[in-house]
Design goal:
The complex is a heterodimer of chains A (307) and B (438).
Chain A: H1 2-25, H2 43-47, E1 68-69, H3 96-104, H4 122-142, H5 147-161, H6 169-176, E2 187-188, H7 209-222, E3 237-242, E4 254-258, H8 264-277, H9 289-292, E5 294-299
Parallel strand pairs in A: 1-2
Antiparallel strand pairs in A: 3-4, 3-5
Chain B: H1 2-22, E1 27-31, E2 39-43, E3 47-48, H2 54-70, E4 74-76, H3 95-100, E5 105-113, E6 119-127, E7 132-141, H4 146-162, E8 171-178, E9 185-192, E10 199-200, E11 207-213, E12 219-225, E13 230-236, E14 242-244, E15 252-257, E16 263-270, E17 273-280, E18 286-288, E19 296-301, E20 307-312, E21 319-324, E22 330-332, E23 339-345, E24 352-358, E25 361-367, E26 375-380, E27 383-388, E28 394-399, E29 408-413, E30 420-422, E31 427-433
Parallel strand pairs in B: 2-4, 2-5, 3-5
Antiparallel strand pairs in B: 5-6, 6-7, 8-9, 8-31, 9-10, 11-12, 12-13, 13-14, 15-16, 16-17, 17-18, 19-20, 20-21, 21-22, 23-24, 24-25, 25-26, 27-28, 28-29, 29-30
The chains are: A mainly alpha (307), B mainly beta (438).
Chain lengths: 307, 438
């Protein structure tokens, strides 16, 4: 009894000592490169976003989408507004109706949202689907007609059909309708193909990095540097290039900066030849023309030199 | 505290955007990749001023085309594809016709025999893509020098389009070998770099080796086994006069001129070793540069005359060392695999070419003067004896396949591309490239 206690005590002590000694002597991982400095963000930091530029110019009224010049005629946005959901009454029979009304409205302009099939019975669906096959041809024929009339018509139809169907047949039709969403042409005083909410000179539509990469890749294909480039010299040339809207050069590229070297003129010539040879640069998108019409290209052969 | 921090962050961000806006709105693109492609060039037949000049004009066109094509940097377009026929060297070509056949440059020219008997050759070089003239020049010479004029025009075109000086108006001195392997007759010979105009300088009674051009005068230095020990000789190309360089006991070999042409550096045998000496050609004074119990040989000056690279086996095997031109301590610069020998300094000063022997293979390579960047340009059995073209961009060497066949001369671009055989009347070895003649 006593000896058992002693043995147990010794064993416990041994384990404790072992742990103290070995674990204490092991060094922590000192590889600081794996450390990532973090700052603890408080609730205030997160909720109070930086106020931004104090003296930013006032944003203009957002320019609406306009495909053509004409009198102001706007169409609804493709995504339905979230706020417009009408109240849902508790009456089960009346439930499908409000859903049907809101859903029929954007039907000609978009694919309808899938109706909740929770309260639909399978045999009813089958019946209605058969009906819809016949009805579907009618809405299709009516498609070329003006859409607002159709919307009104649908609404009236729905109101008439109100009592009998548990769900809206048009919903299913819309579900079955696999056509691309279409809309009328929007017109305004001046055509504006890129609707934006921001300022007119805002850089919302940016010249993408992939366009620049594609241009760089094309120039690399076309550029044959003079063979005599010397590794030890810091040889380079910067050309100022003006483009026309179709991607071809507006004028002969001008040298704006070059290293002082006997090979300078030959390098500049080879760079100009690359630009002249491979125009037009069709990978540059016309809608970003304002951003790529004036580019400075630096030709630097150092990566090519094997030494 | 938090709010202040957030505000300063915001102000900083605002400040940054402000400064970014004031920076140039111009997009900047860096192109660092490309492909070295031979430049497609159209060389229109040179016109003869009179019908009697037509043959010469055609010959000039062919030489220019061959020169540019052999350099590996140009791709002359087949004349059968030309759309426009150039009839006047002064009229502006119709560039769209040349763009259609994908020419990027166009050379036109005319050769006319003058009333005083001289030959006038003129050319124009056009940039087809930009639609403007790049170069235009006219030359006068004696009629039998028409090949040199063609090479000079090739050099002008080469220089304008690559930025480098050309190397076409040069000559090569070499050892011409004829006869069966066991009884080879070796004669000193000189020719144009394209293989034309071969002339023999010695008659073949003596065995001759390692001829080298003087950089400034029409002289060659070489080694010949006359009666007795091999000796270093000086030969005047124009007069044919020959003299022994110094009169030393023992063998002397591997001579080379200094860049100013006033001195010859060579290797002298002393017992079982050899050391490097330099001799002033005017005063005939000899100066010892190395003093080691090893074989020091194959010295070569740097183009500024300040340093000498040479081959030495003081470390056990032949390797390349560099020392000051006045002698003194030498640093080893070759540390690659195998042995390194026959070093020669590029006229541009940026490379030293050498012969490397490793695992039974012989390679011609280049390295920077500090020993870094060692690159083997060609390998096989048995490559040896590199010599640089005057622009430092092409190397000529000889290759001996062994057996009953004899050695031949080859050229290779310093990038390792475009290895070509040089046409010689018979077997050839030990080439040395002259400086530009013009």
């Amino acid at each position: 009894m006593r000896s058992d206690w002693i043995i147990s005590g010794c064993a416990h002590a041994a384990v404790l000592v072992f742990g103290l000694v070995t674990l204490a002597s092991s060094k922590p991982n000192e590889d600081l490169s794996t450390f990532m400095p973090i700052a603890i963000a408080t609730g205030g930091d997160v909720s109070q976003a930086p106020p931004g530029q104090q003296n930013a110019p006032k944003a203009e009224k957002p320019k609406p989408l306009a495909d053509n010049a004409g009198e102001l005629k706007q169409v609804k946005q493709l995504a339905p507004k979230v706020a417009d959901k009408p109240e849902i009454t508790t009456d089960a029979a009346a439930e499908p109706k409000p859903k049907a009304e809101t859903k029929a409205e954007p039907k000609p302009t978009e694919k309808a949202e899938k109706p909740k099939p929770a309260d639909l019975k399978p045999d009813q669906i089958g019946e209605k689907l058969k009906k819809e096959e016949a009805k579907k041809s009618k809405p299709e024929k009516k498609e070329p007609q003006s859409k607002p009339d159709q919307i009104a018509e649908e609404l009236r139809k729905d109101e008439a059909k109100k009592p009998s169907p548990k769900f809206d047949a048009n919903q299913v039709a819309a579900l079955l309708d696999k056509r691309e969403p279409r809309r009328q042409l929007a017109t305004a005083e001046t055509p504006n193909s890129a609707p934006s909410l921001g300022a007119a000179n805002g850089r919302a539509a940016q010249l993408s990095q992939s366009e620049l990469d594609a241009l760089r890749a094309r120039l690399s294909q076309c550029w044959s540097p003079p063979p005599g480039v010397d590794v030890s010299s810091d040889l380079f040339v910067v050309l100022h290039v003006l483009f026309k809207a179709d991607g071809s050069l507006a004028s002969e590229p001008a040298v704006v900066e070059s290293s002082t070297s006997a090979l300078g003129p030959a390098l500049a010539d080879s760079a100009k030849r690359a630009l002249l040879l491979c125009q037009p640069f069709t990978m540059l998108k016309p809608e970003h023309y304002d951003q790529w019409k004036d580019i400075e290209v630096k030709f630097d052969p150092h990566e090519l030199l094997g030494g | 505290m938090t709010r202040r921090r957030v505000l300063t962050l915001g102000a900083l961000a605002g400040g940054l955007t402000l400064s970014a806006r004031h920076a140039a709105a111009v997009v900047r693109l860096d192109v660092t990749q490309g492909n070295f492609q031979p430049l497609p060039i159209a060389i229109s037949d040179f016109m003869g001023g009179a019908t009697t000049d037509n043959d010469t004009a055609l010959g000039v066109t062919q030489i220019i085309t061959a020169d540019l094509k052999r350099s590996g940097l140009f791709a002359p377009i087949d004349p059968a594809a030309f759309l426009e026929k150039i009839t006047s060297v002064d009229a502006v070509p119709h560039f769209p016709d040349w763009r259609t056949i994908n020419a990027q440059a166009l050379a036109t020219g005319r050769v006319t025999r003058q009333s005083d008997g001289r030959l006038k050759a003129e050319f124009r070089l056009w940039d087809v893509l930009a639609g403007q003239q790049l170069a235009g020049q006219q030359y006068f010479t004696t009629p039998d020098n028409w090949r040199r004029i063609a090479h000079i025009i090739s050099d002008a075109i080469y220089e304008r389009l690559t930025g480098e000086k050309g190397y076409f108006d040069t000559r090569v001195v070499f050892v011409d070998e004829t006869g069966p392997p066991e009884r080879r007759v070796k004669r000193l010979a000189i020719m144009d770099q394209d293989g034309a105009n071969v002339r023999y300088l010695t008659r073949g009674e003596d065995l001759v080796l390692t001829p080298r051009f003087s950089p400034s005068t029409q002289e060659i230095t070489y080694m010949a086994y006359g009666q007795g020990d091999p000796r270093v000789y000086l030969l005047n190309i124009e007069t044919g006069q020959r003299e022994i360089v110094g009169n030393f006991p023992g063998m002397s070999f591997a001579p080379r001129f200094s860049p100013d042409g006033q001195r010859v550096v060579m290797s002298l045998q002393e017992g079982s070793n050899s050391n490097i000496f330099v001799m002033d050609l005017r005063s005939k004074a000899m100066t010892r540069l190395t003093d080691t119990p090893a074989i020091d040989t194959a010295p070569s000056y740097s183009p500024d005359g300040a340093q000498i690279c040479f081959e030495s086996d003081r470390g056990g095997h032949p390797q390349i060392y560099v020392m000051a031109a006045s002698g003194g301590s030498a640093q080893r610069i070759s540390f690659g695999e195998g042995t390194h020998s026959t070093p020669v300094w590029s006229p541009r000063g940026d490379y030293i070419a050498f012969t490397r022997q490793a695992e039974g293979k012989f390679g011609i390579g280049v390295m920077k003067p500090d020993g870094s960047g060692e690159r083997i340009l060609t390998e096989g059995f048995h490559n040896e004896g590199p010599t640089f073209a005057p622009n430092g961009r092409v190397i000529m060497f000889f290759r001996d396949p062994g057996g009953s066949a004899g050695p031949s001369l080859f050229t290779i671009d310093i990038s390792g591309r475009n290895e070509l055989k040089v046409p010689t009347p018979s077997f050839a070895s030990d080439p040395a490239w002259s400086p530009l003649l013009s």
